[in-house]
Specification:
The chain has about 450 residues and is an alpha/beta fold. It folds into 2 domains: about 300 residues, Rossmann fold (3-Layer(aba) Sandwich), CATH 3.40.50.720; about 140 residues, Alpha-D-Glucose-1,6-Bisphosphate, Chain A, domain 4. The protein is about 35% helix and about 25% strand. The strands form 5 sheets. It has a 7-stranded parallel sheet with strand order 3-2-1-4-5-6-11, sandwiched between helices. A 6-stranded antiparallel sheet has the order 14-19-18-17-16-15. Strands 7-10 form a two-stranded parallel ribbon. Strand 18 and strand 19 form a beta hairpin. Helix 6 packs across helix 8.
């Protein structure tokens, strides 16, 4: 690709792949423009202050905003998927966003579109998840810009939803009764190799207008991947009993119970596993040669990142942030408490910022554990999502069944409740320095009940 304006557009920069792709493009010497709904999320990334980065706030369903974001760009990366934020309507939402995106690019300087889709056989028997990915690819390919569709199966990397499912199932279940799809073949790929292909295809004109399958060195069944994960975790071989009676609904409910991924996200992923996801040919390596991770090496690298706490992006960060409209109308209850502690404001805030995950909560930890278990049982995220880093927090991150909705280091932290509730809730903690060794901690809880049961819930807690 001939880079004329030295600028590319990235849609989905706050997502799992997009958040890792942007720094690679900056390292290449390109100017990067990001179209995002929540610019604050980008502050979590070390590259957010790069002079070559431009951030435009807006939604993909606004054609005018897309048109503005596409001014002067050479290419556009479309890394958007609504599965996490749109629930069961994700396919419809993805169709609408892709259509508006193509309309917004019309007449712009953009010469190429790059889309990361899902591997799967080309026949009609595709899962809803993979069919949606295929539909988005078709819409983008109808654009005036030549579109490169890169199709990948399971991405192995720290923070990937598919990787988290695999790790937690293996870690927590020495004996597993599984659906028969565990014997289906797949060709996983390391996140580092995905990023290399996405960057490299910019310079390879032969990739324009093509559908290119990418995968790692190896083809395995999901059952074999489980045993490889067990080996990397230092565990004994898992006892796996495939049965034909487990439906995707039952499978997703079980995944939701055991792993951090809730049933709403687990179901489309589980359904996709019934399709064989193996590269049709080696076009990717012919056009963009380079070394590839083998599966065991990719798993070990991802686990190494988890152990060190060096997780660049995580699947749970994606999705829309709750805003003021959620609180408009209705009675909002408030409960505020304060306490003086013998510590500096910075030390106090550092301790408060460790909330959730392995650290737990500030009191009655067993009650939080019980609340998390109840939430999981009715389809909520529960406590199993944990947190990206044991000490650091950033805007937009998931913390168990909370979402960081406001954050200013050494001053205040606000969490929005994402557990199943009979209303809307937020929890905020602030620290106020009294002197160098004394700090006041102020905790405020807000709750807007829904109906009489919501009122009963508030007074009960």
């Amino acid at each position: 690709m001939l880079i004329k304006n030295n600028c590319v557009l990235v849609c989905g920069a706050t997502g799992y792949v997009g958040g890792r792709l942007v720094p690679k493009l900056l390292e290449k010497g390109l100017s990067v423009r990001c179209l995002v709904r929540s610019p604050e999320k980008l502050r979590a990334f070390p590259w957010c202050d790069d002079d070559r980065l431009e951030v435009i706030e807006g939604n993909l369903n606004d054609t005018a905003t897309v048109r503005k974001a596409a001014e002067g760009v050479d290419g556009a990366y479309y890394l958007v998927h609504s599965m996490i934020s749109a629930g069961e309507d994700y396919a419809k939402r993805d169709h609408e966003l892709a259509t508006q995106f193509v309309a917004g690019l019309k007449g712009s300087s953009c010469q190429r579109i790059f889309y990361l889709g899902g591997l799967g056989e080309l026949g009609p028997d595709l899962s809803k998840h993979l069919h949606s990915r295929r539909e988005v690819a078709d819409i983008l390919q109808q654009s005036d810009c030549p579109t490169t569709v890169i199709r990948a199966a399971m991405i192995i990397g720290s923070g990937s939803a598919s990787f988290d499912i695999l790790r937690y199932l293996v870690e927590r279940l020495p004996i597993m009764v599984t659906p028969k799809w565990v014997k289906m073949e797949t060709q996983p790929i390391a996140i580092r190799d995905v990023l290399r292909y996405l960057v490299q295809c910019l310079d390879v004109s032969e990739t324009a207008g093509r559908v290119i399958d990418i995968g790692g060195q190896d083809v395995f069944t999901y059952q074999e991947l489980m045993q490889m994960m067990a080996k990397s975790l230092g565990l004994a071989r898992r006892i796996i009993l495939p049965v034909p009676v487990l439906t995707p609904r039952l499978s997703s409910a079980w995944i939701s119970l055991v792993t951090p991924v809730n049933a709403r996200i687990a179901r489309p992923l589980a359904e996709g596993l019934r399709n064989r996801t193996v590269c049709r040919d080696d076009t990717a390596q012919q056009l963009m040669p380079g070394s590839l991770f083998d599966v065991q090496g990719a798993i070990d690298a991802a686990l190494g990142k988890l152990k060190s706490g060096d997780i660049e992006t995580r699947w749970s960060t994606a999705g829309e942030m709750p805003g003021d409209p959620e609180w408009s109308g209705g009675k909002v209850f408030e409960d505020q408490r304060s306490k003086t502690v013998n510590a500096s404001a910075s030390d106090t805030f550092a301790a408060l910022s460790q909330i959730g995950g392995r650290y737990g909560y500030w009191g009655a930890d067993w009650l939080w554990w019980l609340r998390g278990l109840m939430d999981k049982a009715i389809g909520g995220p529960g406590l199993r999502r944990g947190r990206r880093h044991p000490e650091e927090l950033n805007y937009g991150e998931a913390v168990d069944f909370w979402r960081v909705n406001g954050y200013e280091k050494d001053r205040w932290l606000r969490l929005h409740a994402e557990m199943k509730l009979l209303g809307d809730a937020e929890l905020e903690v602030r620290v106020e320095s009294i002197d160098s060794k004394t700090t006041r901690v102020i905790q405020t809880a807000w709750f807007r009940p829904k109906g009489l049961l919501g009122l009963a819930y508030w007074y009960a807690v």
